[in-house]
Design a protein that fits this description.
By secondary structure, this protein is mostly helical. The chain contains 9 helices and no strands. The mean pLDDT is 95.
Length: 211
């Protein structure tokens, strides 16, 4: 895999959306990708936890996670949230769970459910159709059946685009010149998911977002 060629391709993509380029921004090292089951389990957990941000009873979500043998894959932050009641969860935790939508959308791309994960484009209205609907008592099948996880190289290339797009976003922020194509929260959350998939050593609660 030619990481320098990938860097050039990513820079061209960022430039095509009117982004700024940092030529000295390095390339990522090659790491060990997570297994298909790890990625699917993370997506299932996130799909469930998102419902808490929309005021679902915490006990209902905890039961879903337990019934589907997902508890051992929870992050430390998620475990703490699941010990609380809906009334006691902080607003910041709910905001963070709401942003899981962006990370989950990246994981659904990793699961090869759609093709275009371009960073300027928001989540489509039909995202819910890709996901198990807990309110309709749907199980995990939408994430466990007929899934073909993308290759390391495909995910690496997409993560590289988001890495360089984040640098561009920070450039605009530092210059107090926001750009419609570079939303920091969207880019950050999708990059987080892509990075986690590519590196078994990363802790979901502490994925580096440096540029």
């Amino acid at each position: 895999m030619d990481t320098q060629a990938i860097k050039k391709e990513s820079e061209a993509i960022v430039s095509s959306f009117d982004g700024e380029i940092c030529d000295w921004l390095p390339v990522y090292d090659i790491s060990q990708m997570r297994s298909d089951s790890e990625i699917i389990n993370r997506a299932l957990i996130m799909n469930a936890m998102i419902n808490i941000a929309f005021n679902a009873p915490v006990d209902f979500i905890k039961n879903y996670i337990d019934e589907n043998q997902l508890a051992e894959h929870l992050s430390d932050v998620e475990k703490t949230i699941l010990t609380q009641s809906q009334e006691n969860i902080s607003e910041q935790d709910k905001i963070n769970l709401h942003w899981y939508l962006e990370s989950l959308w990246a994981l659904i791309w990793v699961m090869n459910k759609f093709d275009d994960l371009s960073f300027p484009y928001p989540i489509p209205d039909d995202m819910i159709d890709y996901c198990p609907d807990l309110q309709q008592d749907e199980g995990p099948e939408k994430f466990t059946k007929d899934i073909e996880i993308r290759s390391f190289e495909e995910i690496y290339k997409m993560r590289d685009v988001y890495y360089r797009a984040m640098w561009s976003c920070r450039h605009y922020q530092l210059n107090n010149d926001p750009h419609d194509n570079f939303n920091m929260s969207i880019i950050m959350e999708r990059r987080r998911a892509l990075s986690w998939c590519l590196d078994k050593q990363l802790d979901w609660d502490d994925v580096p977002q440096d540029t």
